[in-house]
Batch of 3 targets.
Target 1
Amino acid sequence: MTDEPSGADDPYRVAEMTWREIETALESTSTLLLPVGTTEQHGHHLPLGVDVYMPEAIGERVAERSPALLAPPIWYGVSPHHTFKPGTFTLSSETFQRYVTDVCASAGRWGIENVVLLNGHYLAQDPELEIVVRELRTEHGLEAFHAPLVDLFAEVAEEIRTGEVSFHASEFETSIMLELLPELVDMDAAERVDPPVESLPLTEYDALGDNKVGWSLTAEDMDELTPTGNIGDPTVATAEKGEALVDTAVSELCRLVDALEDAD
């Protein structure tokens, strides 16, 4: 990958292109980036669309640098644990899996060979998207990949974090939003909410924590854990941290896209 964006003047946002422009673009790429998120509460200081805004903006930066098309995002996901606050939408796991699978499979019919699912609702809907990837590969012949954002920037996040816990709408997500869409962040309303002092072994309340056995929260669990909706400390978030996290995610995804295109 070069330092300068390649093909930045070429269209890549599928929703803004004509079918003839798509046809032309497929001569240069067979990779589709699909931002997958959900619409759910993110505390007092962040908007409901965080989990879509993040992967869509990161996908846009990737498509500016590497040969890929950027699909319209998936706005609704699996968020039953956030329904304790108004504004949250949620789908059943089965509906969500079928919907994402059908979107990707339809792209395969018009020439897409590689699909990268950019997951902004990481941890919570990782299990569903792993199933989607398996079906896309085994049933539809697509080279599919699940890319949870937290996995892409985990090493850098561990290095730059200053808060002890960043689980939901806290240091990482708030920092990324301060970098990408600061006008949607109300830092004056941000509040620190600490999780329980102790959790069961292998089940830490942290995006980079020791969550090894697999678990999920209910709306009742979340209601007991947080009065504001976030868990962790968003007050330590900065745009500088967000820039480091975003740059790392973009770089990692560009490496994947470039390798996929070189292999075609």
Note: DSSP finds eight helices and six strands in the chain.
Target 2
Amino acid sequence: MTPRSQPPLIVKILSEQASTLLPKWTTLLKQNGILATGRIKETELATQCRTVLDLLATAITAAGLDVPAPPYQPLRDLLADISRSRAIQGFSPSETASFVFSLKPPLFEAIDAAKGTDDATALRAVQDVTRLIDALGLHTMEVFQKSREEVIVRQQREIAELSTPVVKLWEGVLALPLIGTLDSQRTQIVMENLLESIVAERAEIAIIDITGVPTVDTLTAQHLLKTVSAARLMGADCIISGIRPQIAQTMVHLGVELNVVSKATLADAFAVALRRVGRTVAPLKTVHRQQPVG
């Protein structure tokens, strides 16, 4: 390999000064506050830094500055694991990036302190270190960003599932209270939860309560109709409750027709559902009067 593809000064520093680089790097990270939140222990941080230095020395000896090369794969995998862990632990992008970029100052200091190094060699070494650490830092941030997006998507799905519970009101009668905006993704979750509950409970009536839905536009109405149609295919009729006056006016203005029984309150919808399944609710005194005297 040419000196350019395998910088001898960097190799020498990493192999001979690792014991000096490690404490300087970890000290700088601690000064930046990485341990302040208590999300990572000092021993874990030291282990991560030591392993990075070992893998970096091995990779740069074998492949120079070619970060995408196979010898760098173990190092890239380690940095990816660290990035995913940081994303799950709630570290910020700057906190995660500083883990890699904080290695620059100790390396620059080691280059400056190297004996018998001419200015041209030192300058080239600084440029090589900058290019190398920047490449590793960008890799770290790409994985971190992707991991954070995955965490956010998973959390959104979990919140959506928690916010769309299916409640059994009576034998054969289910209620699905909706809160918040009803978009395409959430409609799918609503539909899945409702259909599974219809099958599990052998329900005849499903009440979809939209009291907690702030607005109902054409798109929201389409999502509701999809849910109603899916429930009907499973053998359950639907009743929509929670139609407030302002929502009714908006739907009339937009020309939206739900083509399904709707009621102003959940109580009214429940009364209709009970009649459909042949049940009624009456005061206890009335029931006692109707009982024959033995």
Note: The two ends are 108 Å apart (CA to CA).
Target 3
Amino acid sequence: MDEEIRWGVVGPGRIAESVMTDFAHVPGARPVAVASRSADRAAAFARRHGLERAHGSYADIVADPDVDALYVATPHPQHHAVALAALDAGKALLVEKAFTATTEGAREVVERARARRVFVMEAMWTRFQPAVVRLRELVADGAIGEVRSVQADLGVARDYDPADRLFARELGGGALLDLGVYVVSFAQMLLGAPDTVHATGSLFPTGVDAEAALLLGYADGRSATLTTSLRHPTPGQARVFGTAGWIDVLPRFHHPRTIVLHRTGAEPEEVTRPPSGTGYSHEFAEVTACLRAGRTESAVMPLADTLAVQSVLGEAAGHLGVRHREDPDALQGADLFG
């Protein structure tokens, strides 16, 4: 695919609003359409961002012949149904984190994508931030020796509101799927899939997780200690420990500008790599490059990693007594959020 890639946005919510300005930093990518389960919301979003078409249902944008790729920014339980329909229509996909509400849902999307040979990637922008790219290079070059442990936290204080998506079980609310996915994905990126998952935390009255602490264990003794919360703020920092030093990822680690390398016996080395735009541009650039190269998944955010992260999130949720569900009627239902 050498021509311009025409994008459609599924779900004009908060994250989609933030993403739109970064298309200007991605040569060859142009947003042309938006879909909401409310025609009025779709039309208003299209006017704000100069889009050519506004669809009043997700099914309509999936069927739009003038859209090449879809950015799925609906609530988590709706990702599954939208993604399956889009894959059957041959649309490339960038699906917001968390990829789906359940591990089973993620596995079904991945299996369908591979069967159809259609590109799909989780929109985990952290992996594409220039500072994180540099961190991975340093680790690969042995700057801190063998990585043995990862620490990461990401928490915010939100006033409890059962009407807000973040606290609604049917919309995939809770700390794990919105914020915990970042700490888990960061650890998985550096350590791989864990052998054991332990979690403790608390719930809001609606039954979604308010906070969680996770301990990921590996058979060879490596570990990750991770914290996420909607009940209290945290610095949003990460630290990667190796046998020959460590690397600090300064707040907020999921879209950092600066990392600090601490080699054993040496002075700290500060490395600053600012993002292009607000930072979302890099994941769209990755999709563009993959599509033009004919690839069906990204080497930076491969589908196997997405499945590993989703499995950890599902297991942690189970420890907390939270049961997430997919929304099978996402393409037909009334507007709840996007």
Note: Residues 130-274 form a domain with the Dihydrodipicolinate Reductase; domain 2 fold (CATH 3.30.360.10).
